[in-house]
Amino acid sequence: MTLATPFKVHRQAGGGAPPDAPEWQRVEPSGQRGPRRSAAEPPLAHGRAGFRGARRAYRRSRGEAVIETALRLNGYAAVILIALIFLFLFKEGLQALFKIPLGEFIGTTVTDYRGYPKTVRLWQPVGGDPKYSLLPLFCGSFLVALPATLIAGVLGVACGIYLAELAAARTREVVKPFIELLAGIPTVVIGFLCLATLGTAMQNLLGTTFRLNAFLGAIGVALVIVPVIASLTEDALRAVPNELRVASYGLGSTRWQTIARVTVPAAVSGISAALILGMGRALGETMIVLMATGNAALITLDVFSSVRTMTATIAAELGAVAQGGAQYQALFLVGAILFTITFALNVVAELVIARMRRRLVL
Amino acid sequence: MSARAAGRRSVATSRRTRIVGAFFEQLCRLLTVLTCTALIAVLAVIIVKGIGVIDLEFLTGAPTEGMTAGGIFPAIFGTICITLLMILMALPLGVAAAIYLVEYAGKGLAPRIIRAAVNNLAGVPSIVFGLFGVGFFILFVGRNLDRVLQTGLLFGQPAMLWAAATLAILVLPVVIVSTEEALRAVPASHREAAFALGATPWQVVQQTVLPQAYPGILTGAILSVSRGAGETAPILFTGCAYFLPRLPVSEFFGIPMINPLDQFMELSYHIFIMVTQSTDAAATRPIQYGTTLVLVALTFLLNMAAILTRNRFRRRAEALL
Amino acid sequence: MRHMTVIGTAVAAGCLTLASVAPAQATNITVKGSDTMVILAQRLAETYMKKHPEVTIQVTGGGSGTGIAALINKTTSFANASRPIKDEEITKAKAAGNDPQEYKIALDALAVVVHASNPVKELSLQQLNGIFRGDISDWSEVGGEAGRIMRYCRESNSGTYVFFKEHVLLDGDYAADCQTMPGTSAVAEAVTRDKKGIGYGGVAYFAKNPALHILAVKKTDSAPGISPMKDGKPDHEVVWSGDYPIARWLYVYTAHVPEGDEKAYINWMMGPEGQKVVVEIEYIPLKGVLDRKASAAN
User: Fold this and answer.
1) Confidence of residue A203 (pLDDT cuts 50, 70, 90)
2) Which residues of B touch A177 (CB under 8 A)?
3) What residue numbers bound the domain in which A9 lies?
4) Alpha-carbon gap, residue A215 to C101, rounded angstroms
5) Which residues of A touch C155 (CB under 8 A)?
6) For residue C85, what are the CA distances in angstroms to A323, C71, C267?
7) pTM
8) Burial class of residue C287 (count of CB atoms within 10 Å of its CB; 0-12, 13-18, 19+)
9) ipTM > 0.90?
10) By residue range, what is the domain housing residue B113?
11) What subunits make at least 3 CB pairs under 8 angstroms with B?
């Protein structure tokens, strides 16, 4: 390895790394992660090396500049991809608004056999008189996602509390991989098991009219998002500074009183973020709902009825449409709306997490 | 004062408080046990119902008799091909992005936007990736490539290449986050020493940081392979086929090579099709369970390997500090 | 060492790309489309490839709509369809530069199935119309035991769905609570597990299932009920004569007038050997073909 030409070391007055120094320089002295103990302590013992000057000297070398540009482009890749997804989904989806009147996305007016006009809200895009109401699809998606988030929220938060507060270190090392493995099961497998075994078992147990219904889908989806919620809750609970717990014990609380009245309320932002992200994931789940919910486009609040979600509609119908047709663009519109909803949920969750981080830095 | 010590009897705690506390703690334990039981139940059902079908023939033979008999080798082969292609695309992109975020980017707006974008990308529904794959890769990139290269309709149709690209975008956040974690775990003192010896930033990364971060990057790669092998929705329309008479291999100058413009069969898609659209769902049930067992075994082995690598790496990193 | 890795990767990538533009070694025929026909298409492909190993035929399902869409998008050689191509699809195909040709290769009796324990054994077309449009909701209205009718139908990309909509529902809408199943075998399985269920699909999927009963269909309320099955096998005569009201042609569409291997394959499919396969799969062969002596040319 050839050494670069020596450079001038600029001494910088005072400690502390320059504001545009790369991330690793702002990490605390080796080995400690977590919030800094006090603002007065400089992040690096030797920040006086004048790194900024050194980097400028090296950036002048063209090879380095090229490499840095290449890396920067790659860095922006995620941003570019999100922008592209928005662009392409809306490019096709908005064309549907030109082919199909906006009102038809809510409901279509038909004349029934007596000659009177009647508004129907159906999703039946194929046929002589296509109907594009999106209401059954929204209803279906939320009727699966909300119970799933509820079930997974209860289980996930309980797992998070157990892993962060109650479990011994060795137990934790065994249980945590278990829960992470749950996230590793392919969703098509869970959908298959719901369809093949759980559906009949549930119908025998609960006597539901529809064997394949939203609740079955919700259970399947809940299985998949429990690890998401559990690990985020655990991270949130572990980020609560120990001083709060110690103070609570000092005042005479039991362990559960500390958890319930001090730790969890302190971590409530993180836990809400976990739930929001879990719900976003539940809305976006495709294979489980495609196989387990029966796919009947009903508008209903009955969680034991068969429903049709947005994701299942796209998955079931996209392969069959000719490109450029009204149904094709309507499906892209459904995808665009779905993407916007999950994107908004993600942004909200991130804002909540950012607020939590700001609050917890002592 | 440890939490366990505090859990024991403290001054003047009423009996009711202690009982209520114990109840809720046991409830948390119970719910965790319930979750783990769900996992074990799922695995048990798959293993019990699927193990009877697995034999060498199943793993190495092709489907016959209208998919009601025979093996699943083309699906296994296709899965290996697609994940290989996917990781070839995702790994360089993700590692480079993570290097930029950790080593080069300052504290400004840009890294924050990038991190926000990575988190959002992680939350995009898988079917939206499928839509994007069709709308962007096949229709836009593929058709325009055909127009520019005058190759008719070679690139503008569903193919392994586009399916792999779609999956690569899906697993990009996994790679970026794992690599970031691996890079941040390298102690600052190593970088400082390298700079003190006069290395350029890229030399520091290449010679000092990356070699130490390899286990972490490997973990990320294994996790993303396991994630990609299990996803079905993105490949539904971008290249997967129900029944192919031959493997996606072409001869080039006599050497058989994987042809990325071919369609392919894949394990998770195979399960989906067998369950929903096979000719006789009841008769093919054993094959469905068998394929499920193979897929789950594959993803579990990969996940276990990733977890073990990550644990060993974390212990080694902590020992360094 | 690192440089070798980089070079090695570059070489591998190069080989991969180059392999893709290598000329195909064998003639490739892609067949896409109707799920109703996918078993038939696969068996035909398997049998033909055994005799003509230089041809490879690739079969995918997805629904008649998928097949015709693929034909318009030029991603397949043949499109299987269990319904005739629509006028607007022909226009689109011609606009994309194709000249679609239609070939009828078999017939199918569309069977309506209920659970074997259901006392209802026959229904008229009007009753089927009422049931699937949602006007009739209880089994007691059609002579069965009281209970809500659970309807199972196919996805909208399916030719079976479209055919049923046009011929039985007379272009009306399906009831909103029809559970849509991704394939006919899923319909079969769903009705097997639902004592109050009713579903429809190509007869081949239901023929051998003891838990299902294939209904006899009456053209009008007073006409006799005709079952598509006789002695446990599909009844060819009743379909050929038109007595069974919901029977349909199975089509193969091509983008252009077929030549060479494609032409040979279509001729073989419509000839005695192909029709023998049709009978094996329990569809209804073209009338009169099997009586012909097998010609040596095929």
Assistant:
1) confident
2) 304, 307
3) 1-27+42-75
4) 47
5) 295, 316-317, 320
6) 16, 11, 21
7) 0.82
8) middle
9) no
10) 56-320
11) A, C
